[in-house]
Amino acid sequence: ILWRDRVGFLREYAKGVISIVQRNIEQGGSGSREEKLVSWIPPLVGWLKLNTDGASRGNPGLATAGGVIRDGDGKWCGGFSLNIGRCTAPMAELWGVYYGLCIAWEKGITRVEVEVDSVMVVGFLKEGISDTHPLSSLVHMCHGLLSKDWEVRVVHVYREANYLADGLANYAFS
């Protein structure tokens, strides 16, 4: 009975979506998605940009992380590509942020904008996380770095704007 309820729910949901799309087309809409050009945008003058990414083959599975620090001209100022072991995708993302922040701090960078393509991870870093959450210790480690004497902004970016960090994370699989 529970399975039938789920199937029924999905059928009703699909009907609703179809009716909304049809109504949009009837009212002059195209029914298609809006295209948006997405690319890496240089940081503000006086800032550097840290892009990080985590990758997991399986969830949990073999995991890696990568990141790059660039200046306003897009020039490489530092980076990493590392094998983490086995973990979940969000944990791999967080390890990427942690290692990237460590490198930025060790380089003496005073203003850094951190771009991450995981909305969940950005939320953890900006809003915090319950102490009982499985990722809480890693989030707290990141918060320890974020609270040091420097200016750090954490923002979400689309995957397409995080292409180099994604490539470095995937390179670690090889």
TrEMBL record:
Classification via Gene3D superfamilies: Ribonuclease H-like superfamily/Ribonuclease H
Cited PROSITE patterns: RNASE_H_1
Pfam family, one: RVT_3
InterPro entries, per database record: RNase_H-like (IPR053151), RNase_H-like_dom_plant (IPR044730), RNaseH-like_sf (IPR012337), RNaseH_domain (IPR002156), RNaseH_sf (IPR036397)
GO molecular function ontology, one term from the record: nucleic acid binding
Coiled-coil regions listed: none
Domain RNase H type-1: 44-174
Designated name of the protein: Putative ribonuclease H protein
Provenance organism: Noccaea caerulescens
